[in-house]
């Protein structure tokens, strides 16, 4: 459905973050423009991170009631990164944070360095930015879109170490469906495009 901005309907921060993230996920699976996907996912994550900071007390109390253990509460993108297990901290810890800030700033600014060049990011790095943006969005809204559910299910197959806990019955079924439809490398172009087709059929 086309989105029109020629009306008087106001857009909230979380709605903007949702649209950016849904588009980032579609671009990821369409395998057409990963640079734009990265920029959109990073922008969505940055917006939700700020809203989470402002609503920190409210969200903390809600999460404490849900999980029951203050040591298990993660209320930001960076806390999610730091919560990865010891093996993945070496791969996605400080080095990833530094690289992510470098890429994010490269996409947004050119005031003092218009001729700068930057090394490309990997598809796996892009996937990590998207999944943490999904965590943020879900924390704020307590729901995911079709795109977010499918991406989470795919990431559970591609990067199972990113899962913090066992998913619910509905997500377990979705993960099983994604796994049965993937042949070989989850990052393979054909596998990604098949998932993109599935998203289009569900939209």
Topology (SSEs and partners):
Blueprint (H helix, E strand, L loop, with lengths): L12 H18 L3 H21 L1 H12 L9 H6 L3 H7 L1 H15 L14 H19 L4 H13 L10 H13 L7 H14 L1
Helix pairs in contact: 1-2, 1-7, 1-10, 2-7, 5-6, 7-8, 8-9
Overview of this protein structure:
- This protein is mainly α and 203 residues long.
- The protein has a domain at 13-144.
- Helices cover 68% and strands 0% of the residues.
- The chain contains 10 helices and no strands.
- It has helices at 13-30, 34-54, 56-67, 77-82, 86-92, 94-108, 123-141, 146-158, 169-181, 189-202.
- α7 crosses α8 (146-158).
- It is globular and about 45 Å long.
- The N and C termini lie close together (9 Å).
- 26% of the residues are buried.
How large is the count of helical segments? Answer: 10
Q: What's the β-strand tally?
A: 0
Mean pLDDT: 82
Alpha carbon gap, first and last residue: 9 Å
Key descriptive features of the protein:
single chain; 203 residues; mainly alpha; 10 helices
In brief:
This protein has ten helices and no strands. By secondary structure, the protein is mainly α.
């Amino acid at each position: 459905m086309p989105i029109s901005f020629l009306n008087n309907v106001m857009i909230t921060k979380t709605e903007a973050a949702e649209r950016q993230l849904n588009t980032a996920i579609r671009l990821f699976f369409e395998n057409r423009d990963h640079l734009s996907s990265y920029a959109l996912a990073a922008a969505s994550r940055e917006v939700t991170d700020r809203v989470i900071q402002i609503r920190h007390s409210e969200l903390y109390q809600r999460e404490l009631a849900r999980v029951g253990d203050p040591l298990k509460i993660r209320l930001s993108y960076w806390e999610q990164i730091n919560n990865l297990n010891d093996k993945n901290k070496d791969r996605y810890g400080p080095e990833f944070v530094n690289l992510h800030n470098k890429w994010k700033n490269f996409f947004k600014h050119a005031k003092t360095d218009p001729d700068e060049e930057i090394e490309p990011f990997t598809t796996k790095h892009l996937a990590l930015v998207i999944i943490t943006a999904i965590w943020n969005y879900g924390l704020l809204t307590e729901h995911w879109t079709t795109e977010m559910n499918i991406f989470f299910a795919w990431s559970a197959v591609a990067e199972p170490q990113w899962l913090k806990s066992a998913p619910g019955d509905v997500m377990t079924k979705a993960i099983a469906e994604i796994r049965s439809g993937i042949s070989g490398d989850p990052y393979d172009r054909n596998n990604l495009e098949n998932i993109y087709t599935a998203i289009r059929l569900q939209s």
